[in-house]
Design goal:
Length: about 180
């Protein structure tokens, strides 16, 4: 199953019956459908996974399914775990939606590798205010570290977290300027 850009299902599967030999790829936008397909025996993967990882997972699942067709039926490899991961991504997306515009800008700076001082200079806030934003971000995302917050932002698979602006390159040992 592949979704169109607007998250509508591009392919419909037959209603009712087991789907033991079906591999589905979808996003949090279609979580209800994916949960139903998992309950019917389909193997479900998150389309936000890096493409090479996703291809490896799909290939492994298809090989396992083809082997199971030639032997006794078995449950799909890791289907429940992958659905759990998808549900967790949806929770993370909901937590990201709680951030204020100032917190979003601060998170964007953190994702871009900026320090609190650099974020303060760019946003015209005090360093104390930026640090308050960082504390609020960590609390809302239910994480303990800025690295974990960056991981949540990257897993959201949204380009809005990518820092816009010129890249800063330095030679080894030089100060960025």
């Amino acid at each position: 199953m592949i979704e169109d850009d607007d998250a509508t299902l591009a392919r419909q599967l037959p209603s009712g019956g087991a789907l033991d030999h079906v591999v589905c790829v979808g996003s949090i936008s279609s979580i209800a459908t994916l949960a139903e397909l998992t309950a019917r025996g389909a193997t479900v993967f998150n389309q936000a996974a890096p493409i090479l990882v996703l291809l490896e997972l799909v290939q492994t699942a298809l090989l396992a399914l083809s082997r199971s067709q030639n032997s006794s039926p078995q449950s799909p490899p890791g289907g429940d775990l992958r659905l759990g991961e998808l549900l967790e991504r949806r929770k993370e997306a909901q937590r990201l939606a709680l951030l204020t515009p100032a917190e979003i800008d601060t998170l964007r700076g953190i994702v871009g590798g900026l320090t609190a001082t650099e974020i303060a200079n760019q946003s015209h806030h005090s360093v104390h205010t930026v640090r308050s934003h960082i504390k609020a971000i960590l609390s809302k995302l239910e994480v303990r570290t800025q690295v974990s917050a960056v991981a949540v932002a990257h897993r959201s698979a949204s380009y809005r977290w990518m820092r816009t602006g010129p890249a800063r390159f330095t030679n080894f040992g030089d100060e960025a300027g």
